[in-house]
Amino acid sequence: MRSNHRKLADLHTHLYGCIDSSDFLDFLLHREVDWTAYRENYQRIYGVSPPIAEILERCRRGVVGSRSEFNRLFVFGDDDAGNFDRFQAKYDMLLHGGDSVRFSRGEVSLSILIDSICRFIHRTIAAQRRQNVGYIEQRMNVGLRYSRKQAEELIRAMLVSYGKWADSDIQPRLAVSLPRENPWPAWEVVKDAALGPLGSFLTGIDFCNAEEGYPPRDQRELFDDVQDFNNRHPDRALAILYHVGESFNDKSLESAVRWVHEAAELGAHRLGHAISLGVDPRLYGNHTRNEIVAERIDQLNYDLNHRDGLAEFGIQVDVVAVEKELERLKPLAADSLLTIEYDDAKLDEITQRQQYAIRCVRTLGAVIEVCPTSNRRIGGITSPEHHPVKTFLASDAPFVIATDDPGIFGTTLAEEIAWLAEHHHVADDVMARIIDLAWSSRSEILTGRLLQ
After folding, report:
1. Predicted confidence (pLDDT) per residue in 24-58, tens digit
2. 3-state DSSP call for residue 448?
């Protein structure tokens, strides 16, 4: 395999999110799509119905400005920023439009769907290559929507597509996204594919989409099975890529920090976004948050187990008080809601907890994937002063820069790196180390498949 460190490595992208507005419009112009679900969710989130059908009709007639109209509806821009629900409402266009070829109608439809996906693989990789990217890991959800046979055929076809670039100056790899609610069926398919003739192009598994309600501890058994697979097949070992700390409206700030630490403890090789680990808590001001009893119990047990390490960062865990609270909570229903209050002192404590967790993540060897535009728009972090990358830079946290969904965000990896340099005054030598870390944090390296 040839690599060129003058080129960039993008370690966190999603295949559908790499599709740009123009390519997707050309795809839709020759298809009929039932936009009902997309419209309903968009209406619920944005308060208006998206004029998708009307715009597409104007595009078909070649009306001046109609392609720009489509681009504005397609891209999740600064004006859309706020939270994951708003992003999902935009992303639904890709999901519903991309599934306009209904694989459930039979094998012919499945083959058409696969052809479309492979076309997008080729076009997105070609676009990355033009943007000076020399290595890219793309993630694709192959889970509950597919039967085992369909998933097998889809992954096989995708790997063939990636394999066609083997001798080029860009090296693409696949990471299969598993559904958090039940990853096991898809994981069985992934294991078979990884051991197949094209398994060298399959380098990781990913957990993405909404994370609320799916604590990392729920995946302990799966993580253990991945490690067992890797021990038995080191030449086809798979990295665990875990979105965590990106969206955390359902829990306390300390639990959101804990989730990132726990994902690393369980064996995640790279941590997607990890906003909660670095965002300035003062962004939220004095406020209250709700979390369920089960999460509060987990947090209290975490504090007991990590009290010595937390003490090094100025957090004194009152063992007697914690044990009393645990006794009080045990009779309560696990999903009962508790209210957590945050004042200035509590927010300062969150900062200290972040520093402790960052040290643990660094010790565990996990790498954080920072996607600046994605973090700003999905996380609603409008000020660079509050962006988690500021904390990561100051604390020497191991992180790389990636794009996440460059198509729907309308960005490139070079632009993401430029944003970091401009807004956080990153020196050239520091930026060179961040770019180099991306190359040494490829899934193939982190799992030991390849030497650096």
Report:
1. 999 999 888 889 999 999 999 999 999 999 999 99
2. coil
211 within 8 A of 247, measured Cβ to Cβ: yes
CA distance 290 to 338: 5
Beta pairing, strands 337-342 & 287-292: antiparallel
Distance from C-alpha of 440 to C-alpha of 417, rounded to nearest angstrom: 17
Please count the other Cβ atoms lying within 10 Å of the Cβ belonging to residue 220.
Answer: 14
pLDDT band at 146 (very low <50, low <70, confident <90, very high): confident
Distance spanning both ends of the chain, measured CA to CA: 12
Q: What is the pTM of this model?
A: 0.94
Judge contact between 197 and 245, C-beta under 8 A: no
The span from the CA of 440 to the CA of 301, in Å, is: 35
Measured distance CA(239)–CA(134) in Å, rounded:
20
Residue 83 to residues 121, 212, 375, 407, Cα–Cα distance (Å): 28, 13, 10, 18
Pairwise CA distance, residues 170 & 132, whole Å: 9
Cα separation values, 235 from 54, 104, 139, Å:
51, 35, 20
Residue 270 — φ and ψ, nearest 5°?
-130, 145
Give the model confidence (pLDDT) of 261-288 as tens digits. Answer: 999 999 999 999 999 999 999 999 999 9
Q: At what angle do helices 428-440 and 413-424 cross, to 10 degrees?
A: 140
Contacts of 404 (CB under 8 A, 6+ apart): 12, 13, 14, 17, 273, 371, 373, 374
In Å, what is the CA distance from 328 to each residue of 215, 397, 414? 23, 37, 52
> What pLDDT was estimated at residue 100?
60
DSSP annotation of 434 reads: H
Cβ atoms of 254 and 297 within 8 Å: the answer is: no
CB 140 within 8 A of CB 405: no
Provide CB contacts within 8 A for 134, sequence distance 6+. 3, 4, 7, 8, 9, 169, 170, 171
Q: What phi, psi does 249 have (nearest 5°)?
A: -75, -10
H-run or E-run covering 194: helix 184-194
